[in-house]
């Protein structure tokens, strides 16, 4: 009799089925695309805020308005110490971000301290998780723009 070496078709099919089941169970535990996408989007919002603040501040410096506390405009944007006011940031983001994905809080003050907070839907501004915060300083210093993505 002739000896055959190798696997039968049934054995190969069984191995493929087992690998498919393992992949279906294991992959979602290692790949969480929604969380990664949310964190990346928040970093993108932070980058856009930094770019806008830098551009407006540069124009304020050129026009000699970098020390004003809220009565001047740069290209129609209210400024505080040469940076966009948090009210403007909040209103602009609320108008341009998809309200199905993002919520904008704050920015109600005309000066410093109130800040604007952008969070993903499903998270509260009070939780401090999954949010971007734009906060003006009480001096001509650059606003702080922070991302808290630990709880996404």
Structure write-up:
By secondary structure, the protein is an alpha+beta fold. 42% of the residues lie in helices and 18% in strands. The chain has helices at 9-30, 33-63, 86-96; strands spanning 73-74, 77-80, 83-84, 102-106, 116-120, 131-135, 144-148. The strands form two sheets. It has a four-stranded antiparallel beta sheet with strand order 4-5-6-7, covered by helices on one side. A three-stranded antiparallel beta sheet has the order 1-2-3. Strand 2 (77-80) and strand 3 form a beta hairpin.
Low-confidence stretches: none
Q: Which outline best applies?
A: rod-shaped
Proportion of beta-strand residues: 15-25%
Count of helices? 3
Q: Percentage of helical residues? A: 40-55%
- Rounded average pLDDT: 81
H and E string: HHEEEHEEEE
Please count the beta strands (DSSP E, at least 2 residues each).
7
Radius of gyration: 25 Å
Biggest sheet strand line-up: 4-5-6-7
Distance between the termini: 64 Å
Largest sheet: 4 strands, antiparallel
Secondary-structure-based class equals alpha+beta
């Amino acid at each position: 009799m002739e000896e055959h070496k190798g696997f039968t078709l049934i054995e190969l099919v069984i191995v493929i089925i087992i690998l498919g089941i393992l992949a279906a169970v294991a992959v979602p535990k290692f790949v969480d695309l929604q969380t990664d996408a949310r964190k990346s989007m928040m970093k993108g919002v932070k980058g856009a805020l930094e770019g806008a603040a830098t551009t407006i501040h540069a124009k304020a410096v050129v026009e000699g308005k970098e020390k004003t506390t809220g009565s001047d405009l740069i290209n129609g944007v209210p400024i505080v110490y040469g940076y966009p006011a948090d009210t403007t940031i909040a209103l602009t983001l609320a108008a341009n971000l998809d309200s199905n994905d993002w919520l904008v809080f704050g920015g109600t003050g005309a000066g410093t301290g109130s800040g604007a907070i952008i969070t993903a839907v499903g998270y509260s501004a009070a939780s401090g998780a999954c949010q971007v915060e734009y906060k003006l300083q009480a001096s001509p210093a650059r606003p702080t723009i922070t991302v808290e993505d630990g709880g996404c």
